[in-house]
Amino acid sequence: MIHRNIIQVLLVLTALAFICNAQRELFKTDFNQLDLHFLIQGVLSCIVYVLGNQSGEQCLCASFRSKVDAKKNISDIQIYPQTDFCSQVEIVITNRSGGRYCLNPKLPVARKFLARVIQ
């Protein structure tokens, strides 16, 4: 998520630089204070956009599955409680082939599954 936002900021900054350069070539003018003002405003807008889009949470699970693999296909289950960095309980399941997925802990199937695993 953060990498995507950084790329967006870099693309916008590149576009702003291109526009300033095109304006200078088109109108045969030098880079003046007004151009600098718009460039700084664009940079600040990008920074505010990136900071505003970050939720502040650093959870492991970006998406959840509603189905659970068969117990024989599961090699590991990790349960992460709520922390200051993530406000939700996370259940990360690793299957025998090494794939990992998150199970939504609020679903009844997840609660039943955990009850079976604990027994």
From TrEMBL:
Coiled-coil spans in chain: none
Keywords: Cytokine, Signal
GO biological process: immune response
Family matches, as Gene3D superfamilies: 2.40.50.40
Organism (species): Neogobius melanostomus
Domain Chemokine interleukin-8-like: residue ranges: 58-114
Record's signal peptide: 1-22
GO molecular function, one term: chemokine activity
InterPro entries reported in the protein's UniProt record: Chemokine_CXC, Chemokine_IL8-like_dom, Interleukin_8-like_sf
Protein's UniProt name: Chemokine interleukin-8-like domain-containing protein
GO cellular component: extracellular space
